Amino acid sequence: MFRLKKIPIAIAVICVLALVVSACGSGGSKESKEAASQGKADKKIRIGVAMKTEVQPRWKFDLKYMEEEAKSLNAELVVQYANDDVTKQGNQVENLLSQGIDVLVIVPVNDKTGPFVQKAKDAGVPVIAYDALPQNADVDLFVTRDNYKVGELQANAALKYIGDQGGNIAILKGDPASTVAQGIATAYDKILKNNPKVHIVAEQWHENWSTEKGLKTAENALSAQNDNIKAFVSSSDGLAMGVAQAVKGRNLQGKVFISGLDVELGSARLIAEGVQSMSVWTKIDEAAKDTIDAAVKLAKGEKPESESVTNNGKNDVPTKLVDVVAVDKDNLCQFITEIAPPGWMSAEQVYQNGSIPAACEAK
Q1: Which of 170, 195, 237, 326 has the fewest CB within 10 Å, making it most exposed?
Q2: CA nearest 147: which of 332, 308, 291?
Q3: Could you tell me which CATH number the domain at 45-139+284-322 has?
Q4: pTM over 0.90
């Protein structure tokens, strides 16, 4: 009888203790969830940035604006430069993934970086392509200049230069594996080809946007046409510098049209001297800030804004286009003092071989 009375009491005690433990455990779980949720909200988002190169001056400015925006949004950048080596960029993407990044921003060495991007996507990491677009890969957002507009500005400026009489034009396209070069060339094809005023005497792609190869293309074209070329429509400032060397070698500076892209210091000097006719500037401060804003949204599971789509062979990738501005001798001072980011170039640097115009000195 004694045992029969004691057993229910023992069981009751155990049940009470179990309920107490269960209740405590339930309360702890709720608090843990709240703490975890708060911790996630406070967690600094890590954005991996796989840059194609640090050789071109412009990329340090892109990165500067990215870092400023990341800091304002409590995000952290982890940056690596591939220096135009596609294999190295692949290794760096793997390294960034191993560091626990929340989003990958890639400035592709070329359009063959799709397998690296896919590794990130397979690991559950969203991807933003910046400036150029990898082919045949899942990409969440593509942020790029309006490359068609770049080609449009260059081609129309060349047409204005040659006038109603028309003339011979040489076209120097960029790297055939670059979506930037491809977008610019699309405008060339639409505007210059089949134009009755235009006689295209040379048309060449240039791997890695090589200045040396641009020089060779220009020299060969001038030789073949006995210097009778009115315009060199070149896709970048690097190619334009090659053309400028060829033109100067034949004492034709100021007598032919030369276009470019990025308004690098060397080309700005050529514009000031009247050798290069124009270049095109990308509003990189807007591009960089928009990219980091979008990266933070993706890390939070939100959808960033886009204006159009670009097909990369696998998907129609949401695309955000950044505006561009034509820069020539007439607005060069305005570019230096108002449009370019601080530190890009100074009037003293640009006009080192001559007097600084009043429009630059007044600022």
Answers
A1: 195
A2: 308
A3: 3.40.50.2300
A4: no
